[in-house]
Write a structure and sequence with these properties.
This protein is an alpha/beta fold. The chain has one domain. The protein contains 17 helices and 9 strands. The longest helix has about 35 residues. The N and C termini lie far apart (about 70 Å).
Length: about 475
């Protein structure tokens, strides 16, 4: 009788096993020391609190680090998602949706860029989506559409409430006539071959959805822009592939291609969601839709960072609040498999979990000066510092690689800038996360728009 091998961990955690084992060793060491040097009374309770909080930060840090460097740990997985070298014959047709509100400064350039995508004219159309009261954007869009003089570019206006992106997308869905819908934000600069790339990937992979790369490029325009672009760089180059590999694929708000029929099957976009992209991604995951990722720096859609700190906080607040909305709705519980459920929950809670960094800093300082901790716990509580230093090295390497891939100059003082701005940037993320919680508690679901000023296009035209 053959002996059956028992597999205690699900298949989706296969590549995580060495890291799970490493964490268990790290966790066991201070627990062993705690048994060797036992405590009692209030000191024991305080030590357990410190141990618990530190452990949460370590778990978050390790998982975040693994997702960040997944592309380098598992290069074969990522190589599969590179843009195809040869394109198949155009078969699928594309409707480009460009939702815009108060975007009169950037909409003309975006319409021109999307219209200029290299693909047969009879297999593409562009729908610019505006609310009826946005007269300046409508005026700018009409002027550019008239200038281009193409029948496959149309302006779609809508009225009613709520005033947000998913409302406009649902309105445009009824006007779309092509096989595949693709969403571009009002400031996007898509690559000219993006339709050929996705047409090829969808046919070869039999995919229902394709998420292509998006990259912020104005990395030196403000003190926080460098870290902001690095988030996008590591997300689309690495972390997105990690989550796709784990069986849960979050979708971005733009440069995402969805077959029209499958969008209609899930009832379109949730008009109450502040992050309609995350919600539709979750709905498609529950339907087990075939989702493919394609990333290549040469073909990534280029965007800009928010122009100032307040705009950044508003943007992140909306994202965080939208993720919390979805989390508390509980739809992720219907995803099959406990491992996929865990990854979905972690994704939705990711922004708030990141705030642990923000909260851990004052906590660690307080514990350092005012809590009488045993030596073993003091040593254990230092581990997040080493993980932070490791992350700082990764950020510098990533920034250097970003400048090479996107053709920018890497100044010698950039590591110093990252060092100075890292903690203030974590402060912004923490403030955004806490603000999202407060807005959710107060029932404030208004849509806070992100301002765009075309800085990414000015950068390409400049002398950088």
């Amino acid at each position: 009788m053959s002996e059956k091998k028992i597999n205690f961990l699900p298949a989706c955690t296969y590549n995580l096993r060495p890291y799970i084992f490493l964490f268990l060793v790290i966790l066991a060491f201070p627990l062993w020391l705690g048994l060797v040097f036992p405590q009692s009374g209030p000191r024991l309770i305080i030590s357990l609190i410190v141990f618990f909080i530190t452990s949460l930060v370590i778990i978050q840090s390790l998982l975040f680090l693994y997702a960040t460097i997944f592309a380098w740990i598992e290069p074969d997985q990522v190589l599969k998602t590179r843009s195809p070298k040869k394109f198949v014959k155009p078969k699928l047709s594309f409707t480009a949706l460009i939702p815009a509100r108060h975007e009169q400064e950037v909409i003309a350039d975006t319409i021109k860029a999307v219209a200029g995508i290299d693909y047969p004219e009879d297999k593409k159309e562009v729908l610019v989506i505006c609310r009826v009261d946005d007269l300046e954007t409508i005026r700018a869009a009409k002027k550019q559409i008239k200038l281009l003089g193409r029948k496959n570019i149309r302006l779609i206006t809508f009225d009613g409430y709520p005033i947000n992106k998913p409302k406009g997308l649902n309105e445009a869905l009824t006007h779309a006539t092509k096989d595949v819908l693709v969403i571009f934000d009002a400031e996007d600069e898509p690559h000219k071959n993006i339709f050929n790339i996705v047409n090829t990937v969808m046919q070869k992979d039999k995919a229902d959805v394709v998420q292509s790369g998006v990259q912020l490029v104005n990395y030196r325009s403000s003190w926080f822009s460098t870290l902001n672009i690095l988030e996008y760089f590591f997300w689309f180059k690495s972390a997105l592939h990690f989550f796709n590999f784990m069986g849960v694929t979050p979708l971005g708000g733009n440069t995402v291609f969805l077959k029209k029929r499958i969008i209609e099957e899930v009832g379109g976009w949730d008009e109450e969601a502040l992050t309609e992209d995350a919600q539709i991604g979750l709905n498609l995951s529950k339907k087990n839709a075939k989702i493919s990722i394609v990333y290549d720096a040469r073909h990534a859609t280029q965007e800009e960072t928010p122009p100032d700190v307040f705009s950044f906080i508003k943007q992140r607040t909306r994202w965080n609040q939208g993720f919390l909305q979805i989390f508390f709705k509980g739809g992720w519980l219907n995803i099959k498999g406990w491992c996929r459920k865990f990854m979905a929950a972690y994704l939705l809670a990711w922004p708030e979990v990141q705030a642990l960094y923000f909260l851990y800093i004052p906590f660690s300082l307080f514990s350092m000066f005012f809590i009488d901790m045993p030596v073993w716990l003091a040593l254990y509580s230092i581990i997040p510092l080493f993980l932070f230093l490791f992350m700082f090295v990764i950020l510098n390497v990533g920034l250097y690689e970003f400048t090479i891939e996107y053709g920018f100059y890497y100044p010698w003082w950039m590591p110093l800038k990252l060092l100075i701005t890292y903690l203030p940037y974590q402060f912004l993320l923490g403030i955004s996360a806490l603000r999202a919680v407060l807005r959710l508690i107060m029932g404030n679901l208004t849509w806070e728009k992100t301002q765009h000023i075309n800085e990414h296009r000015q950068l390409r035209l400049g002398s950088d």
